[in-house]
Design goal:
- With 100 residues, the chain is mostly beta strands.
- It has one domain.
- The protein is built from no helices and 5 strands.
- The protein has a 5-stranded antiparallel sheet, with no helix packed on it.
- This is Cytochrome c-type biogenesis protein CcmI.
- InterPro entries: Ig_CycH (IPR056412).
């Protein structure tokens, strides 16, 4: 059962680069199941963006406290590497507990 205050973060990161996401979307957990399209406009900071990578890891994390950084007890999942120019949808299964 999801806490109504939980937040879903969907992100793309470079599989061989720093852990900072290239793009991130923040949604209420109540939006699940959700379809999310990540774009360069969702970049977190100056520097590399989504279109600068050839492949990415796509991750999704449910944060019970709404924090951008993973906290023990958050739920997460990831898939990839995925080609950035892929046009077909992918599914991310949230099946791991952070800190366990």
């Amino acid at each position: 059962k999801l806490d109504p205050d939980s937040v879903l973060f969907v992100y793309a990161r470079n599989p061989s680069g720093p852990p900072m996401p290239l793009a991130v979307a923040r949604l209420p957990a109540s939006a699940l199941p959700a379809t999310v399209t990540l774009t360069d406009a969702m970049s977190m900071a100056q520097g590399p963006n989504l279109s600068s990578a050839q492949q990415v890891i796509i991750g999704a994390r449910l944060s019970a406290h709404g924090q951008a950084l993973p906290q023990p007890g958050d739920l997460e999942g990831s898939v990839g590497p995925i080609a950035v120019d892929r046009t077909q949808p992918i599914s991310v299964v949230i099946d791991k507990v952070v800190g366990q």
